[in-house]
Amino acid sequence: MLGRSLREVSAALKQGQITPTELCQKCLSLIKKTKFLNAYITVSEEVALKQAEESEKRYKNGQSLGDLDGIPIAVKDNFSTSGIETTCASNMLKGYIPPYNATVVQKLLDQGALLMGKTNLDEFAMGSGSTDGVFGPVKNPWSYSKQYREKRKQNPHSENEDSDWLITGGSSGGSAAAVSAFTCYAALGSDTGGSTRNPAAHCGLVGFKPSYGLVSRHGLIPLVNSMDVPGILTRCVDDAAIVLGALAGPDPRDSTTVHEPINKPFMLPSLADVSKLCIGIPKFQFCILTFCYKEYLVPELSSEVQSLWSKAADLFESEGAKVIEVSLPHTSYSIVCYHVLCTSEVASNMARFDGLQYGHRCDIDVSTEAMYAATRREGFNDVVRGRILSGNFFLLKENYENYFVKAQKVRRLIANDFVNAFNSGVDVLLTPTTLSEAVPYLEFIKEDNRTRSAQDDIFTQAVNMAGLPAVSIPVALSNQGLPIGLQFIGRAFCDQQLLTVAKWFEKQVQFPVIQLQELMDDCSAVLENEKLASVSLKQ
Amino acid sequence: MAAPMLRWGCRGRRWAFARVDGGSCHRRGAPTGSTSNQIRGESSVAQQPLHTAQKTRKGEHKWAAVVGLEIHAQISSNSKLFSGSQVRFSAPPNSLVSFFDASLPGTLPVLNRRCVEAAVMTGLALNCHINKKSLFDRKHYFYADLPAGYQITQQRLPIAVNGSLIYGVCAGKKQSQVIPKTVRIKQIQLEQDSGKSLHDNLRSQTLIDLNRAEGQLRVDANISVHHPGEPLGVRTEVKNLNSIRFLAKAIDYEIQRQINELENGGEILNETRSFHHKLGCTMSMRDKEGKQDYRFMPEPNLPPLVLYDATSLPAGADPQQVINIDQIRETLPELPSVTREKLVQQYGMLLEHSFTLLNEVGLLEFFQNVIKETRAEPKKVTSWVLNTFLGYLKQQNLAVSESPVTPSALAELLDLLDSRTISSSAAKQVFEELWKREGKTPGQIVSEKQLELMQDQGALEQLCHSVMEAHPQVVMDVKNRNPRAINKLIGLVRKATQSRADPVMIKEILEKKLSL
C-alpha cells in the first residue's frame, strides 16, 4: 500500500480497502524505521493521527473532501505550521512555533491531507545538498536500495558502506527522502534555484516547480522572495498535478499571486501523440561550464546524463515531435547574477531575526546592538552569515548600481531569452536537471556550500529568474544504480501543458521503483537492537 | 505596522515630506540619515530664502535660511497600510498587531486600498502629479521598534510628485494681514510606520508598542543657512517635532544657532538634532552609528502600484480591483483656498477670518448654518462665531461638535439682537445662559431674565430724570464739558434699568435733557 501512488491510494481509501488511520499508522511506523535518514526534523504524530481520525469519519459518512482526504503528506520545515515547530534547520528558529499555517499548508489540510511532519533542509534553504542544516545531513534512501547496493558489490573498490551514503541533493532533501522512502505520498519543498528539482532528480522523484505567482508564498519563510515558489515532490506526474490542483490559485495574502482563473480539477490528459509538439534543446550548458568556472572548477556534465538527455530528445523526435536547438545566450550569467540578487534579498529577509521577538536570543545584554550581534552569530551558520555579508555589501549605496541594478538587468535578459525561445514556437524545453547522479556525502563536502550550489543549480537556476514552471522527471538509473532526472521547462502559467508532456515522457521511460525491502529489513533489525540497548541500560 | 506615507517636498525653499501613516509612532533616538540625503540633494535648487535673518552689524552679510520639511501624517484609515489589523487611537499597547505587524517569518505585506486612495486624494489636493505607476522599497536599519529590520517606503518612484500648496502668513502691525505664499511639494509617498519605543531609564529597559497608531503628525525639519548668492550651507535635521508651535520654535532657534556658530568661526555639522521643548533649544542627538547606509532595495513582495484614469482604464475592469484617479478627483471636496475665496466674496469677510473659520473642524459648517437661519448681517455673525463662540470653545477646550450651543440657538439670539429686542451685553448674558445647556431657547431666557430692551420712551425719560436729580455733581461735570461725565450718566441709567435699556437711546434722552 505504501508503494502506491497518491492517486492509487486515494482510490483505495475511497473503496475502503484501507482506512486513513491504518494508512497513517503505516507511514508513522516507516518514519520511525527510517529515522536514520534524518528526513524529518519534527514528526507530528499526534496531529496526523487526529487528522486521520477525522478523515476516517468523513469517509464513513461519505463526505470525503476529495483526492487528498486521508493522504499522508510532509512539509519542508521552512513552511509555517500552526502549533508545530518550524525551524528552517537553524538555531535561530529552534523552538519557534508559528501561530498560523502557510497558505499551501492550510489548503492541503482543508483538503483532508494528513500532516506527518516537517522535513529537513539546508539552513534557511541555502544549499544544494541538504547537508548544511543544524540537524545534520539527510541521507538519500537510494544509498540503501537494492539497485545501488548490488552495483556496489560488483565494485571491488567500494568503501565501507556505512560511511558511504549519498546526499539527497537540496535544499528540499528531507522532503525528497520522505517521499522516496515511502513515508508519505507527497511533500512540499521550496524552489528558489532548483531546491525541489535537484533532490527530486537525486532521489528518483517528480519534482515540480510551479510558475511564480501560481501558488501562494504566504507562510513560506523566504530565501529570495522574487524567485521562491512552493515546490511539489511526488512519485509520479499525476500525483504532482493533484497536489498542484489543491494549491494553485490567487491568495489575498500574497500580492504576487496572479488572478488568472485556474482550471480545476487539475486533471492531466493522457497525450496520445506528441507530433504537434516542439521540444527545444538549449545549447547553453557548455558555455556556462567554460565561462564561469574555468579558473577554479570545471564541473562536467556526466556522460551518462548527456547520453540520457540525447536519448530523450531522440525519443520525442522518433515519436514525431519537432526537436530544435535553441539559444539562451544569457543563461551563462545566471549563476553570477543569482549570487548578487539572492544574497541581497537574503541580507534583507534575515534582518528580522534579531532575537527580540522570536527564536534564538543570546545571553548578552550589554546593549541592544551587542545582543543583536551575538544572537545572529550564534543563530546562523557560516553559509547564512556569508550570504548576509555579501548581500549587504551589494546593497551599499556605493555598490547598488554596480551590482544589484546590473544583476536585475541581466535577470531581465535571461528571462527574455526564454521568451524568445518560446516565441520561436518551442512548447517545452528539455535539459538535464543535474550534472550527475547523487554523490556520496564525503565526496560532496569536499567543496564548500557556495561552490556546490553554483554547480548544482546550473540547469535549474535560470528558470527561477524567469518565473517559469519546470519539472524534473526521473529517467533511468545510472551505471551505479542511481536515479538520473531530466528537466522540462514550460511557458509561464502553462503548468498544465508542461505536466502533460512530462506525463507522456514518464510513461515512455518507465523509471524503476526504488527497492528498499532490504533497507526496511535492516532497519527493523537496527530498531530492535536499539530497543535491546535501551532495555539493558535501564537494567 | 503599515503606514502609508505621503512625502511632499518643495522645490526651492521648502521641503515638505508628508508621510501619511496608517498607524504611527514615534521613536526616540532613531537612526537618521537617508531622508536627509534626499532632502539635501533636492534643496540645492533653492532659490530664495524663506527665512531671512538679518544681522545689522556693519559690514556683515545678510543670512538666508533654507528649510525643508519631512511631514509624517497618519492616514485616516480603519486598518494599517500593509496589514488587516485595525488602527485605533489609544488602544492598549500591542493589542492591534497582526502577524505581519510583528514581522513573523513568512508573512507578506498586502497594500490597503483605502490608504492608496487617501494618498491619491492628498496628491490631488496638493496639486501634485500622480504617478500612474509607483514602486515600494525597503529601507534597512536595526532598531528595536522596527521588527522586520526594514521599513517599506516609496523611495525611488513615489505615488505623487511636484505639487504645491498655497497658505497664508500673518503680517502687518497687528499680524492681521494675511499674505498668501506658495510652498512646493517634492513628493508624497506611502510609508509603513515603525513601532513606538518607550524607554524606561530607571530600569534601563525599552518597551515596544507595535500598534503604531499614535501621533498623527510628526515633522522632521531640515535647516541650513547661507549668504544669498553663495552655495547652500551644511544642513542639520531636527527630528520628531510633533506640534506646529514647536516646529516654528525649533526652526527659529536652529537658524539663529547656525548663524551664531558661523559668525563665531565655528562650523555646522551635518547631524541630527532634537528639540528640547522646555529649554526651547535644539541639541545634537549624537547618534553613535555615524553615517547610516539604509541599503535601499525594491520590495519584492509588492508588485508596482498601478493607478488608472478615465483614458487608461481597461475595459471591463473590476472597480474593486483598480483605482481610478479621475473618480477620486470627483469625490474631492471643495479645497480650502476656494472656500476661503468664496467666503471673502460672499460675505465681505476678511481673509484672516476665512482662515480661522476653516482651521477649526466644523466651524465653517456651524457658521453657515447660523447664516442660513438668521436675519443678522454676515459680519455680525462672523464676529459672534469667531469671537464669542470660538472663545468659549477654546476656553473649555471643546470641539465644535461638542458645543452646547446649536447654530439655531445662536441664530435666534442674533435675531433678537438684530431686531434690537435685546442689547449686546444682554446678548452676551443670554449666550452664557445657553452655554449652561439648560435646554432653554434664547427667547425663553430673555423673557425669564427680563432682558428685553426698555422700549417705553416715557418711562426711560422718567428714569433719566431721576438719575440726573440724584447725581447733580455729574450733571455739573457734563455741563462743564467733562467728556467722560456723560458716559458715567449713561452707565448709571443703564444700571437703573438692569442693563435693559439701549445706551444709544439713553444718550439721546440725556443730551436732550441737558440741552447739549
Topology summary:
The complex is a heterodimer of chains A (539) and B (516).
Chain A: H1 6-14, H2 20-33, E1 40-43, H3 45-60, E2 72-76, H4 103-110, E3 114-119, H5 146-154, H6 173-180, E4 186-191, H7 197-202, E5 206-209, E6 229-234, H8 237-247, E7 278-282, H9 285-292, H10 303-318, E8 322-326, H11 334-349, H12 368-379, H13 382-395, H14 397-423, E9 428-432, H15 441-444, H16 449-456, H17 461-466, E10 470-477, E11 483-490, H18 495-509, H19 517-538
Parallel strand pairs in A: 2-3, 2-4, 7-8, 7-9
Antiparallel strand pairs in A: 1-3, 4-6, 5-6, 5-10, 9-11, 10-11
Helix pairs in contact in A: 2-3, 8-18, 11-13, 11-14
Chain B: E1 16-20, H1 34-43, E2 51-53, E3 63-73, H2 113-125, E4 129-130, E5 133-134, E6 137-140, E7 150-153, E8 160-171, E9 177-190, E10 196-200, E11 205-209, E12 217-226, E13 236-241, H3 244-263, E14 272-276, E15 281-284, E16 297-298, E17 305-306, H4 325-331, H5 336-347, H6 351-359, H7 363-373, H8 378-395, H9 407-418, H10 424-435, H11 442-448, H12 457-470, H13 472-479, H14 485-496, H15 503-513
Parallel strand pairs in B: 1-3, 1-9, 13-14
Antiparallel strand pairs in B: 2-3, 3-12, 4-8, 5-17, 6-7, 6-16, 8-9, 10-11, 12-13, 14-15
Subcellular location (chain B): Mitochondrion
Subunit structure (chain B): Subunit of the heterotrimeric GatCAB amidotransferase (AdT) complex, composed of A (QRSL1), B (GATB) and C (GATC) subunits.
Enzyme class (chain B): ligase
